[in-house]
Amino acid sequence: MRENFSLKKIMGSSDAICKLAVKVERVAKSDFTVIVIGESGSGKELISRAIHHYSHRSKGPFIAIDCGAIPENLLESELFGHEKGAFTGAIKQKPGKFELAKDGTLLLDEISNMTLGAQAKLLRAIQEKMIYRVGSIDPFEIDVRILVSTNQDIGDAEAAKTFRRALYYRLNEFTIRIPPLRDRKEDIPFLTNLFIEETNIELGKSIRGLSKNAEEALLQFHWPGNVRQLKASIRRAVLLADNVIEEDHLDIVNQSANQRNLTCSSEREAWIGRSLKEIVKENAQALEREVIQFMLNHTNGNKSKTSRLLKIDYKTLYNKMKSLGIK
User: Between vectors from CA 25 to CA 20 and to CA 28, what angle results, nearest 5°?
Assistant: First the structure.
């Protein structure tokens, strides 16, 4: 089965992906802890699964947990498990992710969103290779390979004192950085054809490909949502198209990464006669609305996770959503 698996078959064959594949196969053969860094939608879990697949633990389980989506008071139980009666609602013993990943791989997704308190408990478990279920005084050994993923550089978080230095040094045995899709656009035609084939099968259609204009539109777009956004756009286009995907089937706006609506000529003319303070405030609110909406979409509407990603408290996020008209 290993011979049939190839990152190039599912991510493309650009130089960046070829170099990435070499790193993945080499580090997979070790038991190194690996930090996988990449923007949202770039394929961090895919790379993590590839590392597991090529490793000597491939016959064991691959378990992933989103560290940012679970409140701190529940994260310890999710990671280490709990005993019956350990807390209100603990009606039976429950194994944690470390137990479930025995002899396999545990992916700690978006670890940079983990609180400092939870980081301390994680560090102890990794160093001692022992865990305690919540409510238990009896430790037991763990044998699991740790992978972590994040959309921000943990080194920067450590420098900003939002990530424990000791944990950073313990995890930082090997780092893999996934290039964003805008930096490897030569993979877009391959990925597009792959997603068309998959969606044709799903919908029972026979879309033949893209028009020239549609293809150029895909290559010109900056893809802030990376491969995940490309896949969603192609699925929608296949649904709407009859024979060939046209540009108007794609739900993208062709603009450069630094281009914003406020720079168009009609917007600039609207500035005439208004104060600088008024113009800046208005556009600052527009940007704030855009950022919060993007983060809510990224977390599938999870306001607790969104507030942690934006480093603001839940009440502040709620009030901003209300004042900005975000539902």
Answer: 115
Secondary element (H or E) of residue 36: strand 34-37
Whose CA is closest to 256, among 223, 222, 225, 293?
A: 222
pLDDT band at 254 (very low <50, low <70, confident <90, very high): very low
11-37: average pLDDT: 94
Domain 2-179 listed as CATH 3.30.70.20: no
Ramachandran angles phi, psi of 174, nearest 5°: -160, 135
Going from the C-alpha of 116 to that of each of 122, 123, 128, 157, 161, the distances in angstroms are: 10, 10, 18, 11, 9
| CATH number, domain 182-249 | 1.10.8.60
> With contact defined as beta carbons under 8 Å apart, do 151 and 39 qualify?
yes
Residues of the chain with CATH 1.10.10: 267-324
Domain with CATH 1.10.8.60 in the chain: 182-249
Whole-number pLDDT of residue 39: 87
Chain segment 59-84, per-residue pLDDT in tens: 999 999 988 778 777 888 889 988 88
Q: Which fold has domain 267-324?
A: Arc Repressor Mutant, subunit A (1.10.10)
| CA atoms of 42 and 225, how far apart (whole Å) | 8
Listed in order, the ranges of the chain carrying CATH 3.40.50.300 are 2-179
Mean pLDDT of the chain: 86
> What long-range pairs does 234-243 form, CB within 8 A, spacing at least 24?
234/192, 234/195, 234/196, 234/199, 235/195, 235/199, 238/195, 238/196, 238/199, 238/200, 238/203, 238/205, 238/207, 239/199, 239/203, 241/207, 243/207, 243/208
- 18: tokens are 């070829």
Q: What per-residue confidence (pLDDT) applies to 108?
A: 95
How far apart CA 36 and CA 172 sit, in angstroms, is 10
